[in-house]
Amino acid sequence: MLRSLSGRFLILTIIFVMLAEVLIFVPSIARFREDYLLSRLERAQIASLALLADDMIGEDLEAELLRNAEVFNVVLRRDEMRQLILSSPMPRPIDATFDLRAAGPAELIGDAVKRLFDREERVIRVIGAPVREAGLLIEVTMQTTGLRSAMIDYGLNILWLSAVISVITASMLFVAVRGFLVRPIRGVVSYMKSYAAAPEDARRIIQPSAGVTELREAEEALQSLQVELTASLKQKEHLAQLGEAVAKVSHDLRNILTSAQLFTDRIEMSEDPTVKRMAPKLVNSITRAVNLCESTLAFGKAEEPPPRLTHVLLTEVVSDVVESERLAIEDFDLSFAEDIAAGLKVRADPEQLYRVIANLVRNARQAIVATSQPGEIAVAAREDDTSWFITVTDTGPGLPPKAREHLFTPFQGGIRKGGSGLGLAISAELVRGHGGKLLLLRTDETGTAFEICLPKGDVAET
Question: Which of 29, 132, 309, 385 has its CA 20 to 30 A from that of 57?
Fold first, then answer.
């Protein structure tokens, strides 16, 4: 029970209520002491008035009056005259004098605390104002034993009452907390356990029902999280199924392309000038397709294979990409620009770098062709002491909002209608495999620019 929320709340409530009662106890005991002393002054005043009414009171009656008032002496000042009205022998000298006429709260509390913890029997003088204006002041001497005993009894009564109030209050709060907080929290925990058992089951998603604002917000946040997670799990399941299907297709396609390679070897032996010029391009394209199928099979088993890093002449890779894209546009008014130093070499896997640049250029070409307006695609490169930077810029319409939001997310960052969004996701993964980054520099109505950043040092050094 002590480890539960309601149990700890019960204990804390008792502690805080008792603490509040203690804070009330100190001024209360001071008030009780003041009332006690004022009552003794009032009794003494009544006794003195009885004596003033009859000067013939005997010693026995005078002693009885003092006993009833629980004082030793009574001094009454009337008309500027101080008069000892009643007196009896005192057991010891007076230890202290307390004037109740001008005492403030702090002084009363301090005197009460001292008296409560002082076990010595003492004689004190108490001065106060007579009731009903029966003089200027009244003064009595008395023992502290009865005062301290009365204060202790009063204090114990307060403490017992405080304990009862604390227990009752805490019990009521305990029941309220269990009803308004603990039970809804247990319901949320139950939903979480049920959902964890089968997160793909949408029926197990929590439906917010709490009346407490904070718990309602927690339930809504949990519901949103569960909805997103369920959708993500379904997407991953679809991706796994798609990956398996792609792996099967790639396996068969690789066999077909391997056969095509055998035919291209014979085509290269042709004496036709056009065939001689186009054959190397065809051979390179088929070779890359075979390599892509093999990479897809490896990806279906685990992930993209690690890059085989070598120093690649960048102009050759970009030229191959541009030549392939020129074949795809036929008579469309689209120009290509290359701003790359002739001897610039980058440290990369040539096949993977080709795929990255090809994906970016292909996306740019498709975006411009979709507008039916002339355009330009530019590939530029630069370097500094630590990295190479390859920029692909186009004059297309820019990326739509959905593509910007899920730019490198498979099946969500598609740029054109019907696109899968795999190209950018694969490209980003390939660049990360080189220890680099694929960044979107800008995109607006004037076009889009991507930048490939490849480190010059080892991946561990970057």
Answer: 132
